[in-house]
Amino acid sequence: MPTFTAPDGTRLAYRTHGAGDPLVCIPGGPTDSRYLGDLGGLSARRRLIVPDLRGTGRSAIPEDTSSYRCDRLVGDVEALREHLGLPRMDLLAHSAGANLATQYAARYPNNIGKLALITPGTRAVGIAITGETRRELAQLRRNEPWFPAAFAALTAINEGTGSDWEAIAPFFCGRWDAAAQKHHAESRPSNQEAVALFATEGAFDPQTTRTALADCAAPVLLLAGEFDLNSPPRSVAEFAELFPHATLVVQPGAGHYPWLDDSDRFTATTAAFLGHGPAHTPPTTPKPEQPR
């Protein structure tokens, strides 16, 4: 598994899938990036470069654990771009990873070709998702056999009287079948410290980020799942309004992992948006590590 070195010396790993023009894919969580798989076959269209965020997967645990904070991870993404030798890169991010990608776009706007935010987290831009929004969206699933127990657990969480997050897992999937249950079981974060510190105080400066995004020249795709309680379509639409050149797509029947719910539709939508890589991008030949 190839590696590169972060600005603070932490050794970080990444995986590659497929061939063709490179697409850097930032996972959510923070968790082991393997849950992304090959993004429903998107690797047939682009070469996916998928880093393990620090402290997850095969990336090292940093000496300074405060570096798990989202804004501090921006430097890791830039180090990966430099390691790959890309003047500009197309960037895809899922879930909480969108908070990182958004801050990267705000800090390094000239280093992005296209930006695809898949069922994105919205904390970096200060878009709050209310319990009422989630309850309304949950009602779309009321004919599912698992709905009564899951909705009761969701209501208890929203009211502060419960914390059974496992019970509401079906709400995050377009189909709560064996494949979805297996994916859910294999996607749990293993580094709870990284999760806990990702959004600590100082991780986000929504107003500064919003101001920077208003001048973002890159085309942006925001893809929401019709049923996704984590990133409701209404909230993703509000997010899209912050970019000058945004395309909003709501994938029918999808939850938080749209490449699992309908891989053909997901890959067709995403690949059509991304097209080929940024103009004048050379082949992806990682720079050799320098001795330290």
Word description of this protein:
- With 292 residues, the protein is an alpha/beta fold.
- It has a single domain (3-126, 192-274), classed as 3-Layer(aba) Sandwich (Rossmann fold), CATH 3.40.50.
- The protein contains ten helices and eight strands.
- The protein has helices spanning 70-84, 97-107, 131-138, 147-159, 178-186, 192-198, 206-213, 233-240, 258-261, 263-274; strands at residues 3-5, 11-17, 22-26, 47-51, 89-94, 112-118, 220-225, 246-251.
- The protein is globular.
- Residues 279-285 and 287-292 have low confidence and may be disordered.
Question: Short summary of the structure?
Answer:
The protein is an alpha/beta fold and 292 residues long.
CATH superfamily: Alpha/Beta hydrolase fold, catalytic domain
Q: Strands of the largest sheet, in order across it?
A: 1-2-4-3-5-6-7-8
Low-pLDDT regions: 279-285, 287-292
> Which architecture would the CATH scheme give at its second level?
3-Layer(aba) Sandwich
SSE order: EEEEHEHEHHHHHEHEHH
What value does the Rg take, in angstroms?
Answer: 18 Å
Give me the number of helical elements.
10
Which range does the strand content fall in? 15-25%
Distance between the termini: 20 Å
Specify the biggest β-sheet: 8 strands, mixed
